[in-house]
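Protein 1 of 2
SEQ + STRUCT:
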Amino acid sequence: MKNDAIKISKYLSYVLRHNPQEIGLTLDTEGWADIAALIDGARRTGQDLDETQIRAVVRDNDKQRFSISEDGKRIRAAQGHTTRAVAINYSALIPPAILFHGTATRFIAAIMQEGLKPGQRQHVHLSDNRTTAESVGQRYGVPVILTVDASRMHEQGFKFYQADNGVWLTDHVPQAFLSRDA
């Protein structure tokens, strides 16, 4: 059962973050998709999916990658979109003084030269704790934790946002605001 939930979560991430058009799904500018349309599109392309499964994945996902609208009819990925049609309008917030970013050793040289960039995503993803950052970094190899001086960035006019799942977002983190944990 757990493997099914992981498979469904990966499928939802792919469709809701990166490629909704593959199943004929339309996302609004805030990333919301109609759950019934998602199920229909998935079935047309050979993915057996139902509302109970979707709600269980949203509820039980440890990273809270997805949100269901207040009316219960729509779903969206909390963040991580590569499709430019989605630009969730989060309100700017004052971040914690320090945030963290997990990466792998093979990316450190470029990051320490260029800072953190969103890559294919719309924002740089940051966490408010080392444990989450380490978990993220492990996905890419030997993890390295970077500390972000978010307070100083904010004082200098950089904007921070927080996704539905608690992930902190910003457009770019210049190298001057980064330090590598020992």
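Protein 2 of 2
SEQ + STRUCT:
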Amino acid sequence: MQRIKKGDDVIVTAGKDKGRRGNVTKVLSNDRVVVQNVNMVKKHQKPNPGAGKPGGIIDKEMPIHISNVMLYNPAKGSGDRVGFRTLEDGRKVRYFKSDNEVVDV
């Protein structure tokens, strides 16, 4: 089980986008995540008429390391550490370490 999953609301803790919040759109296998509207870069793209892509300069989201994001705790209003716990019915869930609130319901 991963600490950060696709669809989680996270806050960036380091780098040029420190303090920005966003949704995780993709989790990559090499401990990197793509967060919506975070770590935007300008990419020069060649046109591809076969795929219907125009050429020009586009904005693109690039992955950042998973250690530079924290799961956002709405009760606390900031990022929070995540732990794992097994419930009575045998399910393994994530919880916030500051207030022991279960993330996965």
